Amino acid sequence: MNFDYTDEQKLFAESVRRFAREHLAAGALKRAHDPRFPFDVAQLMAKQGLMGITLPQSDGGQGGTLMDAVIAIEQIAAVCPRSADVVQFGNFGPIRTFAEYGTAAQKARWLADLLAGRMVMSLGMTEPDAGSAVTDLKTSARVDGSHYVINGSKVFSTFSPDAQVFLIYVRYGPGLGGIGSVLVERGTPGFTIGAASEFMSGEEWCELHLADCCIPAENVLLGSGGFKKQMAGFNVERLGNTARALACGRYAFSAARDYAATREQFDRPLCEFQGLQWKFADMAIKLESAQLLLYRAATNADHGLPSAYETAIAKAACNQAGFEVASEAVQIMGALGFSRETLVEYCMRRTRGWMIAGGSIEMLKNRIAEHVFDRRFDQRKRQSAVAE
Ligand SMILES: Cc1cc2nc3c(=O)[nH]c(=O)nc-3n(C[C@H](O)[C@H](O)[C@H](O)COP(=O)(O)OP(=O)(O)OC[C@H]3O[C@@H](n4cnc5c(N)ncnc54)[C@H](O)[C@@H]3O)c2cc1C
Q: For a FRET experiment, which of 54, 74, 135, 155 has its CA 20 to 30 Å from that of 332?
């Protein structure tokens, strides 16, 4: 067991940090308050080799590891937390499921633009009546000759105001086995993208409506039975949210530490008050322990499919650590921390969302409990109870 980066990982981390300082430090605050996808950052990152880190070179990626992508998120977020969303998009998000299961024709059509930062993809999974119970999704795909007709609605899709192509979970038939996914382009007749709404983090999302939306059969990504494959991809996506949550917590921690070292009250720097020292000690414990869980999940995922348990425990720990540390950093920095003049309040708002998105803390804990008891706990009502 070795708790250090390899020499290669150290060099990679340094080069990403240098890139971030040179290109992303200026404008970090402005970027955090801009709800739109930062295409300029995506294009810079594409040139730097930070898009498709984990995708094979034959697909236009870098052929690197998930750990590399986690390191990239950490180094970028340490300078510009908002830009870490671009690393997420280019490495962990629906782009990965797409690159893994897309046909050669689908990849030829979209992947190069996505990896170059010219285009962004949005994931349409959640529906008004299917959130945590995602397998309750109703959006239907009915075959009609050489086409599929899609009907349904999606909510909360990240990047939906800017996306050109949408990876939409659909139902071809009943049950878990009936779920798969299709690719729908903006502008397809029958596909309406509603007005933008805002999350607490400042990100925007649009309702997506598909009404007799006709797509060619070539746009099917995964047919019936594709759900399990999508969930395996989703475990990887979770690691991106996990890494961003922790990295935003670290950003806030560093800002608060610098502040406490220099800000004076009662003729002493804040860091000399034991009440604040213990806060920092608790914050460090949360960050360091969550980081070990993240690194274990990412490293083991690099040696096979990500473990659902390791991913769940890492995400729950990093989501909680990221939010709690950012919230404490706001407290330590007083009114300045609560102000939009610093990125600390942004990190607090941003980390809050990952306790809900990509597997809520409660759903992750359900998964962890199943591991503890080595049995499955069905969240649905028992049939006998339903009948009563
Ligand atoms: C910032 C952000 C980005 C998102 N991005 C996307 C995206 O790109 N694409 C997309 O499709 N969706 C996206 N979502 C939606 C996200 O996937 C859902 O919010 C999530 O699945 C939870 O669903 P829900 O909000 O409907 O909450 P509900 O499922 O209604 O749950 C409400 C509360 O009840 C708890 N709960 C539910 N069931 C159980 C249970 N069995 N045991 C214990 N507690 C339970 C939940 O944990 C939650 O606290 C995003 C959400 C957020 C906040």
A: 74
